[in-house]
Amino acid sequence: MKNTLKTKATILTASLFVLVACGQKNGKKGTTSQNTVLSEEALYRPYFHFTPEEKWMNDPNGMFYYNGYYHLFFQHYPDSTVWGPMHWGHAVSTDLLNWKELPIALYPDESGYIFSGSAVVDHENTSGFGENGAPPVIAMYTIHNPEKRDNDQVDVETQGIAYSTDEGMTWTKYQGNPVIENPGIRDFRDPKIVRDTTRNQWVMVLAAQDRAKFYRSDNLKDWEFLSDFGVETGAHGGVWECPDFFPMTVEDTGETKWVLIQSVNPGGPNGGSATQYFIGDFDGTTFILDPGFEAELNKRKAFWIDYGKDNYAGVTWSGIPDSDGRKLFIGWMSNWEYAQQVPTTAWRSAMTLPRELRLVKTGNTYQLASQPVRELKDFRARASKKHDIALNTPFVYHTESNAALNSTEISLTLEGIGNGTSVIQLYNKEGDSLTFGLNSQKKEFFIDRTKTGKTGFSEKFAEKKSVAPRFSSSATLDIHIVLDKTSIEIFYDNGSVVMTEIFFPEAPFDTFRLTATDSEAVIKEIAIHQLKFD
Ligand code: FRU
User: Fold this and answer.
1) pLDDT at 17 over 70
2) I need a surface site. Which of 89, 96, 196, 197 has the fewest CB within 10 A?
3) Ligand 1: nearest atom to the Cα of 336
């Protein structure tokens, strides 16, 4: 029975419809006569995570803020739901959560595909592309030549720029491209530009196979190589891609440190694609690890921005005004292990929630913490708040109207954690469940999506549960969870450990259950917010 229904569901999916409620499916819970059919849009299109209207998307690119708009560009192939000749798609938002997709910004041409890169507002018109006193926006990206790739040439990737004189709406490729030739390195890509205000220069970092390379420029057109970083540092399970580099103020101490974000694929902590980071100092030429960070890195081997399987190629927005001062990050919420097989047919992939990064000092080291952007709070509709709940019996919650837990933010604080486990399960009447939590004995967080519904499209997708270390030894644990239709983002211990994963249930999850084995464990407080988007 199960197989027959699964097959039926697959066929329906292919025609944009999926069978979501079929009572006999798991054979355990008796029958219901419901045969509700939800469209793929209704079941899987996220409420508040960006997805392209149609077809393939991977990395976020060229994010900048200007004049009230957050711009988000993205690796896009508008002709298929699998990767192909890369364009830059484009979307804008005024609140980081409601996105409007705009016409494609950059098309591939005879020089090659438009791979990942960045964009900056050139306020002082250092590039000279500005017109009528308005600052131009400069995008820098990798030109990837497919013919050279197919001929096994080394110089496949060079860097180019494009400029916009209408605040990012339309773009002109620079006649003098490429602005950086290939130095004889096959993987040489993903330029990210930052303004180094201390030295009044533009600094750019790009990924070159097993290292990051730093360059400088005065005008965004002429680039000079500065230095290399990382060949023997951090995680090297695969190719380094999509770096980001910027100064940040350390919370509480007020010092300035430089952060290098560096994606690697494969070689993530739970397999496949993931993003690590490094913290240190930059003298305008060279990036040197902070000694305390380096000592901790030697123990941990890598610092990961997210331990879940679905946060890759993430970088930060440029141009956030000083009056705001946040470092805003977004990642691609998928993994190259299975991104091209996930079970959606109209579009493929979503971005993570935009997040605010914070730089905190813990003991002798520095680390990044992430939290959902505060704008998410503006979408809270109904709330259910409770406190001081003993966990000698499980805590079970369903929404009052049995609404789905798929546009939901849950914040809770557990106290009295000993050596046991604290386990949260989300489930539906179809028998699908997502399980996550903490195993204190192992000092390990985990997330298990092996029973979340459609998992068989790739053997890598639900091969095993994902785990993350818990660094804190506190008996108090705060957990902040953001749920959309096909994703969970979990921020533990004030965002110092993050796990993001996607899933494809046959019907929305509607019940939340928390069990703890420690006899003293209590929910100090819990707030469950249903989020509302138009
Ligand atoms: C990362 C990446 C980048 C590259 C782009 C191509 O996911 O491989 O290194 O620029 O995707 O689409």
Assistant:
1) no
2) 197
3) 7
- Tell the residue number behind the tokens 């009056």, with chain if given: 323
Say if residue 80's pLDDT is above 60.
yes
The answer on 141 and 269 residing in a single domain is: yes
Is residue 162 classed exposed, middle or buried when 0-12, 13-18 and 19+ CB atoms within 10 A define those classes? Answer: buried
Which are the contacts of 27, defined by CB distance < 8 A and separation ≥ 6? 1, 2
Whether residues 137 and 37 fall in one domain = yes
Average pLDDT, the chain: 93
> In 3D, which of 512, 510, 507, 487 has the Cα closest to residue 48?
487
CATH number of residue 424's parent domain: 2.60.120.560
48 lines ligand 1 (CB under 6 A): no
Place of tokens 């200007």: 66
Domain boundary among 319, 346, 371: 371
Query: CATH no. for residue 165?
Result: 2.115.10.20
Q: What is the structure's pLDDT at 36?
A: 59
pLDDT tens per residue across span 206-240: 999 999 999 999 999 999 999 999 999 999 999 99
| pLDDT grade for 315, boundaries at 50, 70 and 90 | very high
Whether 190 is in the pocket of ligand 1, judged by its Cβ within 6 Å, is: yes
Out of 55, 57, 59, 86, mutate this one to test ligand 1's pocket (max ligand atoms within 8 Å of CB): namely 59
Q: Which domain holds residue 14?
A: 8-371
Count structural domains, the chain. 2
**Cβ atoms of 240 and 212 closer than 8 Å:** yes
